[in-house]
Amino acid sequence: MGAVYKQLSIEERRKIERWRHAKVPDREMARVLKRSKATIHREIKRISSPTNVCPNVMATTVPPRI
Fold first, then answer.
1. How far apart are CA 63 and CA 14, in angstroms?
2. Residue 33 lies in a domain
3. Is 1 inside a domain boundary?
4. Distant-in-sequence, close-in-space partners of 10: CB < 8 Å, separation ≥ 6
5. Is residue 5 part of a domain?
6. Which of 28, 33, 40, 64 is most buried, by CB atoms within 10 Å?
7. Rounded to 5 degrees, what angle do the CA atoms 44, 49, 25 make?
8. How many independent structural domains does the chain possess?
9. Rounded mean pLDDT of 7-26?
10. Distance between CA 25 and CA 46 in Å, rounded?
11. What is the pLDDT of residue 26?
């Protein structure tokens, strides 16, 4: 049987976003969240891409455009 994967929760995504701005190392984020460093890196890459922004995460961190 294959591995079972669990998606990051919205709370985990928000923590990663806040920690990223606070310059917390990927390895420390992974340790605290009990996730793979690769998972954290992929999420940061996804968040950083202007075309793949999760509206639920960004709604709390970026003011709407006028």
1. 15
2. yes
3. no
4. 56, 57
5. no
6. 40
7. 20
8. 1
9. 94
10. 17
11. 95
Q: How far is CA 38 from CA 7, 26, 30, 33, 64, in A?
A: 13, 9, 8, 12, 30
Neighbours of 8 (CB within 10 A): 19
Q: Is residue 29 part of a domain?
A: yes
What angle in degrees, to the nearest 10, is found between the helix axes of 37-48 and 10-21? Answer: 80
Please, what is the end-to-end C-alpha distance for the chain in angstroms?
Answer: 50
Question: What is d(CA 54, CA 1) in angstroms, rounded to the nearest whole number?
Answer: 31
Task: Give me 59's structure tokens.
Answer: 């709604």
- pLDDT, one tens digit per residue, over 43-53 is 999 988 766 55
Chain position carrying tokens 């990051």: 8
Q: Which domain holds residue 29?
A: 10-58
